[in-house]
Specification:
The structure is a homodimer. By secondary structure, chain A is of the alpha/beta class. Chain A has a single domain, classed as Nucleotidyltransferase, domain 5 (2-Layer Sandwich). Helix content of chain A is about 45%, strand content about 20%. A five-stranded mixed sheet of chain A has the order 3-2-1-4-5. Chain A is globular. The interface between A and B is medium-sized, with 28 and 28 residues.
Chain lengths: ~170, ~170
C-alpha cells in the first residue's frame, strides 16, 4: 500500500510517499512543491494542482493523507493554506484516492508520542521509523512524511510475507 | 467577451455567465452548483472542480471573476468556502482564463452603487442591468452574476457594432 502525505501550503507544500509491505515501512519519496509569492494566487494554485496530479500519477497512492488547516495568527496565510489544501483534496478525490485529514496534534501524537512535539522531534522520529540517516529538509517534507505515517498507524496492519493470509478458526 | 462570475461556496456555489458585445450586456447562464453536506469534503471539492471545469468548457469565458472569501463568524464555513474558492481559482487558471478577485463590498458598490446594499437590492440591480424580468433564485446565482458585472465594469469598454474600431487622431 502506498500513502501520499501532504503538509499543505502555497509557498511550500510538503509531500511524502510511504509504502507499507507487511509490517515494513519504506520512504519512497519526499520533498516540497514551491510556488512563487510573486505569481498571482490563481496561477500558484493551478501549479500546485498540476504538481500534485503529477505525484499521484507517478506514485499511484491508494490513500492521500492531508494535515488539517487550523486558523493561525495570520488570517491571510491560513486562508491561502486552506485554498491550497482544497486544491489537493479535490485532485486526490478526483483521482480516486481515499482522502483522510489529520490535525497537527494527531500527527505529532502518532509519530512522536505526544501532541506537543516540536518540528525537530517529529523529523527525528520520522527518520528513526523509516531508517533515514540524512536530515529531512525542508521540514515541510518531514511533516508530510509524518502525516503519511500517522495515517498508516490508524490503518489495520497488512499481513506480511512471514504470516499466512488465511487464518482459519473454523473449518 | 464572456465573463464567468463565481460566488464561491461548498453547499451552493453560484455561477453566472455574462457576455458583452460593444456596450450590450447579456446574461448567458446563471445557476448554482450544489454538493451534499453528507458527502466527504474531498469528494465535494472534486465535484465542484468537475462542474466548474464543465462550465468553462461549455461557455469558454475569457475571464473568471470570483468573490473574495472573508472571515465570517463561522470559522469552519469560512475555511470550507475558502477551499471551494481555491478549487475554482486553480481550475480557471489551469484553463487559461484571466482570474480576478473582488471583495463583497466592491461587488455591491459596482452593481448597486454602495457597499452596504442587501442581497435583494443586488438581485434587483442585476436584473435591471440585464433586462431579466423573472426573479434570479437562488440568491447565490444573482450574486455570481453581480461579480461578473462588477468585473466588466472595471474593464475598458469594447468598441461596439456602431462605433469604428479605429479612431484616428493624427493622420
Amino acid at each position: 500500500m502506498f500513502v501520499l502525505g501532504i503538509d499543505p501550503g502555497l509557498t511550500r507544500c510538503g509531500y511524502g510517499v510511504v509504502s507499507r509491505t507487511g509490517r515494513r515501512l519504506r520512504a519512497e519519496a519526499a520533498g516540497v512543491v514551491r510556488t512563487s509569492p510573486e505569481t498571482d494566487l490563481a496561477y500558484r494554485l493551478a501549479e500546485l494542482q498540476e504538481e500534485v496530479g503529477a505525484l499521484i500519477r507517478e506514485y499511484r497512492p491508494d490513500h492521500v493523507a492531508i494535515e488539517r488547516v487550523l486558523f493561525q495568527v495570520n488570517v491571510r496565510t491560513a486562508m491561502q493554506t486552506g485554498q491550497a489544501s482544497g486544491v489537493v483534496m479535490a485532485e486526490a478525490a478526483a483521482a480516486g484516492c481515499v482522502v483522510a485529514l489529520y490535525s497537527p496534534n494527531e500527527v505529532k501524537s502518532a509519530v512522536a508520542g505526544w501532541g506537543g512535539a516540536d518540528k525537530d522531534q517529529v523529523e527525528q522520529m520520522v527518520r528513526s521509523q523509516l531508517g533515514i540517516t540524512t536530515p529531512l529538509r525542508p521540514v515541510d517534507a518531514a511533516d508530510a512524511v509524518a502525516v503519511a505515517l500517522c495515517h498508516l498507524a490508524m490503518l489495520p496492519p497488512e499481513s506480511g510475507p512471514g504470516r499466512s493470509v488465511r487464518e482459519a478458526v473454523v473449518r
